[in-house]
From TrEMBL:
Source species, domain of life: Bacteria
Cited Pfam families: TctB
Keywords from the UniProt entry: Membrane, Transmembrane, Transmembrane helix
Name of this protein: Putative tricarboxylic transport membrane protein
Manganese found in the keyword field: no
TM region positions: 6-26, 47-63, 83-100, 107-123, 129-153
Record's keyword annotation contains tRNA processing: no
InterPro entries assigned: DUF1468 (IPR009936)
């Protein structure tokens, strides 16, 4: 079995456990007034788990490839050094750094840094486009979360207020 199918099999196991939790354990603790709502807090996890299980099954069963390509593996695990592992690991490290810096640096600075850093890792070099676009995208997301949804999201570092 090819490496992509093994990875999909691992993801399938994780999604099955996540789906079990979403379908059978999340709804017992709901208060009675929420049990009559059409959309529960577990609705999105249920949809997400079903879609992820279907996607993983499609990859495990090999249905995403044409019949003539079914025997040729896409990823050669013996040549992992030829792939862009540095970029992938750098992006994972940047995600961890973003999660750690979100509270002390504030949403706006941490998100602009994450988006700009991710774009630089992936090869973007036009900084005169990169910084305004990431700032605009961050501002729009912050406004939607703070202003429209009404969820408090600290925009600036803690020492600025």
């Amino acid at each position: 079995m090819a490496l992509d199918r093994w990875i999909a099999l691992i993801i399938l196991g994780i999604c099955l456990a996540y789906g079990y939790a979403a379908f059978f354990t999340m709804d017992q603790l709901l208060p009675p007034f929420m049990q009559r709502n059409p959309i529960w807090p577990s609705t999105f996890p249920k949809v997400l788990s079903v879609l992820a299980i279907l996607t993983a099954l499609i990859i495990v069963l090999g249905l995403e490839k044409p019949a003539d390509e079914a025997n040729t593996p896409d990823i050669d695990y013996r040549r992992l050094g030829d792939y862009h592992i540095y970029k992938a690991l750098s992006l994972l490290g940047l995600m961890v750094l973003y999660a750690l810096m979100l509270r002390p640096a504030g949403f706006i600075l941490a998100t602009i840094g994450f988006l700009a850093g991710g774009a630089i890792i992936l090869g973007e070099r036009k900084f005169h486009y990169l910084i305004p676009i990431t700032a605009l995208a961050t501002g729009i997301v912050w406004y939607l979360v703070e202003g429209v949804l009404g969820i408090f999201l600290r925009p600036w570092p803690f020492f600025l207020g």
